[in-house]
Design brief:
By secondary structure, the protein is an alpha+beta fold. It has two helices and six strands. It is globular, with a radius of gyration of 13 Å.
């Protein structure tokens, strides 16, 4: 399985989260998941909220358009981005190749 799939206009990402990193960034692949480093600590849902905001900004949508489908309490997460308006430069080539027309 790839680290992403398109579901109509929505993009579903399989992520591996690394909280308490030095900066927010996409960090390549971790197995079959996209590794995302975040500065937020993994307490009281702060890392999850920060992840949704980070992905919303990266994909040009409001954070309300990004939802956590699974993995609320662990590092392995599945996130849905509703109709992304842009693709981050570091991921664009791979995502665009599979994007439905």
């Amino acid at each position: 399985m790839s680290w992403f799939r398109w579901d109509g206009a929505d993009l579903v990402l399989a992520c591996h989260l690394q909280p308490k990193a030095s900066k927010d960034e996409f960090a390549g692949l971790h197995g079959d998941r996209l590794k995302i480093r975040l500065t937020a600590p993994p307490v009281e849902g702060k890392a999850n909220a920060h992840l949704l905001a980070f992905l919303g900004k990266a994909f040009g949508v409001a954070k309300s358009q990004v939802s956590l489908e699974s993995g609320e309490l662990n590092r392995q997460k599945r996130v849905r981005i509703h109709a992304p308006q842009k693709l981050p430069a570091e991921l664009a080539a791979e995502l665009e190749a599979e994007r439905p027309t």
